[in-house]
Design a protein that fits this description.
The structure is a single chain. This protein has about 220 residues and is α/β, with parallel strands linked by helices. The chain folds into 2 domains: about 110 residues, D-Maltodextrin-Binding Protein, domain 2 (3-Layer(aba) Sandwich); about 100 residues, D-Maltodextrin-Binding Protein, domain 2, CATH 3.40.190.10. Helix content is about 35%, strand content about 25%. It is built from 10 helices and 10 strands. The strands form 2 sheets. It has a 5-stranded mixed beta sheet. A 5-stranded mixed beta sheet has the order 7-6-8-5-9. Helix 1 links the parallel strand 1 and strand 2. Helix 2 packs parallel to helix 3. The protein is globular.
Length: about 220
């Protein structure tokens, strides 16, 4: 049987190996569609044939509000935070503290973050709280979603802000590090079954995601315990 899952782009790089390993031990076929949290919530609302979702807490809460998920099935399995990336041949910036981050954001030539991704939406609030919103928006490129570190790789922008797991999905860029703890927002990802008649087949994959082997694997992509 094919299991249809809507999955946050945050798992884009880690998921191929997960699916490859799962296929060895299971007869179930996983069909995954990736996207932003906002986009996937809307897609789940309009496509009731989806069997499961992998989303942040906000995305899960939104679907619970629409009574589209089975509450008892919600299983957290991954956690990551926001970080920054630059091109490998670019001078290194300091983001080790709140003050250093502010200076880096003000001094950089250009920056990219998403409009609809969870990371971009949080970063938009952060620069407003820091009092530098206008300065940053004036030099920002803001695609709706996708891997914004690709813009760094192609030298379209100097800095990219996104979940660390999404930064690590792009090769040949330099990962500067996580945002300072005092400014960080951690994202917890859960898998949850929908009300689809086939959603009961998701349980095996849910248990697989929580296994020690998979937990060790996703650490390579910026996820932490």
């Amino acid at each position: 049987m094919t299991i249809k899952i809507l999955c946050s782009t945050a798992l884009y790089a880690a998921m191929p190996k997960i699916l490859e390993t799962f296929a060895i031990q299971s007869s179930e076929i996983i069909d995954i569609t990736y996207g932003t949290s906002v986009g996937l919530v809307q897609q789940c609302i309009s496509h009731p044939d989806v069997d499961a979702v992998i989303l942040t807490e906000n995305g899960i809460e939104a679907l619970l509000h629409h009574q589209l998920l089975i509450p008892a099935s919600i299983t957290p399995f991954a956690k990551t935070g926001l970080g920054m990336a630059i091109a490998n041949d670019t001078k290194k910036f300091d983001i080790s503290s709140k003050d250093a981050l502010i200076q880096t954001l003000l001094q950089c030539d250009s920056i990219a973050f998403t409009q609809l991704g969870a990371s971009g939406m949080y970063f938009s609030k952060l620069i407003k709280q820091l009092g530098i919103e206008q300065e940053i928006l004036a030099k920002a490129i803001r695609p709706e979603g996708g891997l914004v570190s690709e813009l760094v790789k192609n030298h379209q922008v100097q800095l990219a802000v996104q979940l660390v797991s999404e930064i690590k999905a792009v090769s040949d860029v330099h990962f500067l590090g996580f945002l300072p703890d005092e400014l960080q927002e951690w994202s917890i990802f859960s898998i949850a079954q929908t009300n689809s008649p086939n959603s009961g087949t998701v349980q095996e994959f849910t248990e697989f995601l929580s296994s020690t082997m998979i937990q060790q694997h996703i650490q390579e992509y910026g996820f932490i315990n």
